[in-house]
Amino acid sequence: MEEVIKIISLLDEEDKQILSKFVTTLIQKRKYNCLRKEIASRRAEVEKGEVLSHKELWQDFMGNV
Prior knowledge:
mainly alpha; single chain; about 85% helix
């Protein structure tokens, strides 16, 4: 990691900004990757009709309180 910091310190400001935008984009993609997988999984469940009714949801919720 120290090597990376040394290399970054050698860059000019414009290149540091470019690198910063690139890293931000990578982090955002990783950050939301799990959420995208969860959404895809839920969509598949909905398409198959594997969803809880309001009654089932509240019964489960009230049972856990």
